[in-house]
TrEMBL record, chain A:
GO aspect biological process, one term: quaternary ammonium group transport
Highest taxon above the source species: Bacteria
Sequence ranges assigned to domain CBS in this UniProt record: 255-313
Alphabetized InterPro entries for the sequence: AAA+_ATPase, ABC_transporter-like_ATP-bd, ABC_transporter-like_CS, CBS_dom, CBS_dom_sf, P-loop_NTPase
Family statement drawn from the similarity comment of this UniProt entry: Belongs to the ABC transporter superfamily.
Name of the protein in question: Osmoprotectant transport system ATP-binding protein
Keywords attached to this entry: ATP-binding, CBS domain, Nucleotide-binding, Transport
Domain ABC transporter: 2-236
GO molecular function, one term: ATP hydrolysis activity
Record keyword Transport present: yes
UniProtKB/TrEMBL annotation, chain B:
Name the record gives this protein: Osmoprotectant transport system permease protein
Coiled coil location: none
Primary location: membrane
Topology in the lipid bilayer: Multi-pass membrane protein
Residues that span the membrane, as ranges: 45-65, 72-92, 104-122, 134-156, 180-202, 214-237, 257-278, 299-319, 325-345, 352-371
Automatic annotation (TrEMBL), chain C:
Protein name: Osmoprotectant transport system permease protein
Record carries keyword ATP-binding: no
Keywords assigned by UniProt, alphabetized: Membrane, Transmembrane, Transmembrane helix, Transport
Organism of origin: Phyllobacterium myrsinacearum
The ABC transmembrane type-1 domain, residue ranges: 52-233
Amino acid sequence: MIEIENITKRYGAATVVNNVSLVVEPRTVTVIVGTSGSGKTTLMRMINRLVEPTSGIIKLDGEDNRTLPGYELRRRIGYAIQGHGLFPHRTVAQNIAVVPELLSWDKARIDGRVSELLSLFQLDPETFGPRYPHELSGGQQQRIGVARALAAEPNVLLMDEPFGALDPVIRSKAQEDLLAIQKRFGTTIILVTHDMEEAIHLGHKIAVMDGGNLLQYATPAEILANPATDFVATLVGTGDRPFRFLSLSPAGDAVEPGNAEGEAIPASATQRDALAELLWSGRPALPVVNDAGKAIGRVTVEGLVKRASRPAA
Amino acid sequence: MVVRLDKLGVVTALITGYAVAGAPFATFRANRIVAGEPQTLLAALPSWAGPTLLTIVALAVIIGLFRTPSTLRLAASFAALAALFLLIGTAAEHLTPPGNTYARVSPASGFWLLLFAFALLAADSLTRLRPTPLIRILVLILAGAFIGSVLVSGSWDKLSILKEYSARADNFWAEASKHVTLALGSLAAAVIIGIPLGILCHRVQKLRAAVLNVLNIVQTIPSIALFGIMIAPLGWIAANVPGAAEIGIKGIGMAPAFVALFLYSLLPVVANTVVGLAGVPAQANDAARGVGMTERQRLFRVEFPLAFPVILTGVRIVLVQNIGLATIAALIGGGGFGVFVFQGIGQTAMDLVLLGAVPTVLLAFAAAIILDAAVELSSPAHSRTSA
Amino acid sequence: MKLRFPTILRIGILVLLIVFLVRPEWFEPVFRPLTQNNAPVIYNQGSLLTLTLLHLRTVAIATAGATIVAVALAILVTRSFGVEFLPLSRSLVNIGQTFPPVAVLALAVPAVGFGEKPTLIALFLYGLLPIFENSLTGLTTLPPTVTDAARGVGMTGWQRLLKVELPLAMPIILAGIRLSVTINLATATIGSTVAAKTLGEVIIAGLQSNNLSFVLQGGLIVGVLAVLIYDGLSAIESFISRRMGLLQQS
């Protein structure tokens, strides 16, 4: 659990983060969204003390983050940034091994961990371990950046626009990978982005920041349904709101009894995908199948449209 | 209240403390080449001057020690430097017995350390004030005028370096003019040949590597060897080409020195021309073609003006380098301030060495400041902010 | 195989240089046309090999000292406690470069006497500047994402310096050392005007006795040494930068 209590950061006369408080539940993904200059990155960098707050306290699992020296604290917290920040003079394997080495793990354990992480990110350890960062594609570099952040098995992972430099196709794949890894390790992730779409897709909770202030801290559904201010509403984008809302839940949740003709859609697909398929194929209903491929009912245009409307406050 | 010390101020204070308490201020010698007797600051200066200098120095150190405004620090360091310059002359007056023309008084390590300490403080305050190019040149002119008036006033006449000067005043100006002719003349030749050569290298890819390689290799030949190597071909030309000897081409003397300096100067000029032209944005060139400029118009109206600051940087490198290298010309009879340096080394007369070295350093220093200012004034970033 | 020819050429030049230093008399016919009146063709006032080694030794000592001091200073002014000195150190480097080597050499003589010492001082001071300037450039132009990542993974100040900043700045620092060595190889010859044992002795002997052959021998040895050392250091630099993938960026 991460407790941020009345955190303020000033640079001279400028207040970059203004009296922000929020609690991040363990094993969840929290996304901080805001435009540039909103203070979102500064807020995140105060968690691992890359930036020291002017006032306020941050507690990790109940312990003040100032009890350890900054560098020891940072070794226990994963950190991944836009443009990956890999060390160009070290091989991929050496890059991933940085934190375990700083923590003086023994060599066998480090090697094992490096291979495990490379395999996890679908990169062959034999092939990719000895390469240098510049020999990899942008997507591969980004994966190594995340692998390095996870190397010492941190409970908390901080990510600053980690997918910002990727093209859309690789980006959505990287997002899926991140969600899978979060589920697998149960890591608490705090991710900073300017992209509301990404926030809604990845976050269990979203913190919207503007001008150093925390405007709203809520679940994606809540933010879509009841944006706290006009600024939040603008970020969410009124035109896309119903579709974003549908994208939060799986088609399985919208299943109605009955049958339908034509190609089925898996229950794990989002309701947005289901509606898109319905509209595109011009059918009134789609069959839904579970993971085993067994039909469990159908979704209808009518049913999905109802779900896309603004929930009662 | 916490009083915060300035780190450079601490350094200045330490140097000053040692210079005043632990090092001699001036050296007295019975004649030109015997070993000297070191004199402390208070012993070297007349009874009124010693405490005066100490007071000014102490005040400047205190101002430097605390975090005071840069303008105040600059004023304090200039005041200390001026006091040092003015009072070293009185030390010579004070230490030289009346009527004795053999005795020599020269500044000693304490004086040089004080000079260094306050020059450091002045440089630091000037750097922090970020003076515009024109202000920098103005400061240079004022400093030059100050030193010039001290020289003219005659208050340094009893210092040994000026005794060396008065013994060979005519020679000094002749060598000075040779030195400047060598440095500037070879620079002019290098600019006239080097810039077109650079443009050619920019246009003709194949030529570029070859020309730059040859010029690079020329740079690795030690200056004294290159000066020496030039003797033979120029001697041959003087002997075999009609009229060559009449216009002053000889195997020894200024001609080989001039050619050697010219060869050294070519690389920075050509290389910077090539780099400057290569750095012209492709869009600018494209636009120039797009609006229908001819090749020649594009060169003179677009490429050359944009590359000019880089070319000027090359000229700056060459001028400073040439002023230094021209001292070597003395080894092959080419004249210049090197004459005094090498004579001084030969006679172990260090005052004579200084007579050659100090003007060389001052010339190079002034050239660097003026051309740095010119480079800054000519760069597009500057004209944008001043517009 | 485009690279092949220059490599062979370089090895050839190196071999030629070694042969010339060990058996200079074999080259007598080459230099004979440059002398007059039966003057000695090959430098005969000492061993060329010994002078070359002394020359290299002087340059090596001065450059090693300059490297240690310049890199240490550059590290100092790029740490938070020394950052106050950064602008001043930049100005000093600029001013220092205007001091002609002959002047530095001559001014060092009264302090330390004749011989190798003033030469070492002049070469040391002259060598400082390019190395300091390049180290400063290297340490202040590191990619910000990389330095941020180094802090973010929990490296201490020392670890960041030794494991990330210095290795990344290394190619630029090496370029400074290369420049410094090349300048110093040539400048060391001037040291012989204050009685240092360098190849300058050969050149000066030639100038004094009007013997072009001596001048050429001294000049050529220094020039060839400079070209070979310059090449060798360039090769090391580009190997390191290539490994880091920095070459494509520049």
